[in-house]
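Example record

Each entry pairs one chain with its bound ligand, S-adenosylmethionine.
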Amino acid sequence: MAELDLLGRLPRSRRNIAARATAKTPELVERAMRFEFDYFDGSRDYGYGGYRYDGRWVPVAQDIVAHYGLRAGQRVLDVGCAKGFLVKDLMAACPGLDVVGLDISHYALSHAEPEARGRLVRGSCDLLPFADSVFDLVIGLDVIHNLDRAGVVRALKEFERVGRGPSYIRVDSYHTPEQRAVFVDWVLTARFHDYPQGWEAVFAEAGFRGDWTWTVIAA
Ligand SMILES: C[S@@+](CC[C@H](N)C(=O)[O-])C[C@H]1O[C@@H](n2cnc3c(N)ncnc32)[C@H](O)[C@@H]1O
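Structure tokens for the complex follow.
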């Protein structure tokens, strides 16, 4: 297991931290955490402010396929797949790869990319509806931190259970008190976030053997 940045070719998100901190109310957070229209396609105050396919995951999919040496016939699970953008792009990057997505959001799954439909299932990352050892790679980008710490441990154990190869996750972190303050102003849905040492303790507790990278919010 290693810290590994396979997302370096994603464009940087634009974030108005001050506006978010001002707009954020308990009611707004509660609506965002339903992961329905508001979170994906409502105003930026609630989440993405419009979650549309624009091809940004294409180079990431290519880098994931290359790094893990994925081949036709192998099985990949994208946990927290949303509208299936990465599912679609992984299949394009490696024809014959069998990619499945899982997400809790009925809204996202019912507005998924046509190429991903039929491959997406609804469920929670801490109770995966799959048999043991059936995926050659399990991916979970910006998803498990939507649970509390105990839920994160359960989710990582689930990644280990359904996988028979590596896993790759991205989770919310910060390296300094200043970065943490920016993160807390910005965050809407993450219930568990920590410094790298805190995450590493969680990885150890869960027996997680996968690779990871951090989402660190820049001021
Ligand atoms: C920040 S988005 C990340 C989407 C995608 N992985 C990406 O990186 O663009 C978080 C996603 O996790 C989903 N989600 C939230 N809680 C979840 C849970 N307990 N189990 C599975 N998916 C969940 C949301 O519906 C949403 O699609």
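The first helix runs from residue 17 to 23.
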